[in-house]
Amino acid sequence: MRAVQAREAGGPEVLSYVELPDPEPGPGQLLVRVAAAGVNFIDTYRRSGLYPMPYPHVVGVEGAGVVEGIGDGVTGFAIGDRVSWSEGPGSYAELVLVAAVHAVAVPEGLDLVHAAALPLQGMTAHYLVASTFEVGPGHDVLLHAGAGGVGLLATQLAVARGGRVITTVSSAEKAALSRAAGAAHTLDYAAMSDLTTELPAAVRELTDGAGVHVVYDGVGRSTFDGSLASLRPRGMLVLFGAASGPVPPFDPQRLNRAGSVFLTRPSIGDYLATRAELEWRSGELMAAAAAGDLDVRVGATYPLADAAQAHRALEGRGTTGKVLLVP
After folding, report:
1. How many CB atoms lie within 10 A of CB 8?
2. Phi and psi angles of residue 113, each rounded to the nearest 5 degrees, phi first
3. In contact, 155 and 143? CB cutoff 8 Å
4. In whole numbers, what is the pLDDT of the chain averaged over residues?
5. Bridge-based pairing state of the strands 103-105 and 298-303
6. Which segments of the chain belong to CATH 3.90.180.10?
7. N or C: lower Cβ tally within 10 Å for the chain?
8. Could you give the CA distance from residue 183 to residue 36 in angstroms, rounded to a whole number?
9. For residue 234, is it left (φ>0), alpha (ψ between -120 and 50) or beta?
């Protein structure tokens, strides 16, 4: 099979398109022919060495495809089944081994390309608005990178739950996409010279001086201070990514001074703690997408061999929606 390996820690140039032996499913595993693999920031963190990994390793963890082989002890799946997954290490490949406990069936009415776009970003959006801070009627929400994959999905989910969503974007095109997803207001943070002061000032103007109930921040270092200052008393800052780099250590007394606010750094694994939780989140998302109630935007697809180009586009914030690799 053909696959994409990270030879060593580094930039996109360390990705190599290689030929490897076809894998064989072991106990509890499915062998899946990949229809599309998701490109995510976690892939770039592992490629760069920000998240420690062995090298070389086949990159990617997310995708959708068709079952071609079944290991011992697997029940509930058959050869030919269409499945998707968010925890399938080595997904930048023509074939991947996926633990059956991490695979979910793709419903009729949802194609495999869009099914591949949903697992990581979709379930992240779901746990953010349904569990980490449960958005409801009357809640004001600030969501960074509103035209990104998580941003577009989380906006739709939060609005459906009764929230009013303010997003940050970096261009007029991205503002239009965010508004189409349901954002009540968009703020161009690329035009702000000082996010620490200008961002919270703009947010408070939109909330009659109160601030928002929750900030969902997947950007990290460059937005953290402005996010914290945009909260109302007892609000929550949900730091779920670090697209601009990790947030430096800080004095917890800042949470006190900001109005007894909460800070959490969730991880998707803790919100998919059981099979029932995985099926709940993925089931709601895929049913909504299949019914046309959730718009899943695939912003770009690249051939598997062009994984480095896809990483450059993602890290350069030149993408909207979901980025996919197609073997």
Report:
1. 10
2. -65, -50
3. yes
4. 96
5. unpaired
6. 2-117+297-326
7. N
8. 29
9. left
For residues 58 and 53, what is the distance between their CA atoms, to the nearest angstrom?
11
Q: Among all chains, which residue has been given the structure tokens 């928002």?
A: 212
Identify the pLDDT of residue 276.
96
Distances (CA, A) of 306 to 66, 98, 169, 323: 22, 23, 26, 12
| Fold of the domain built from segment(s) 121-268 | Rossmann fold (3.40.50)
Q: Where in the chain is the domain with CATH 3.40.50.720?
A: 121-268
> Helix, strand or coil for residue 125?
helix
pTM score of the predicted model: 0.91
For residue range 34-84, list pLDDT tens digits in order.
999 999 989 999 999 989 999 999 999 999 999 999 999 999 999 999 999
The CA-based angle 8-123-103, given to 5 degrees, is 75
Residue 180: what residue type? A
Q: 224 is written with which tokens?
A: 């953290």
| DSSP labels, 229-298 | HTEEEEEEEEE---TT-PPPP--THHHHHTTS-EEE---GGGGS-SHHHHHHHHHHHHHHHHHTSS---E
- Statement: 2-117+297-326 belongs to CATH 3.30.70.20: no
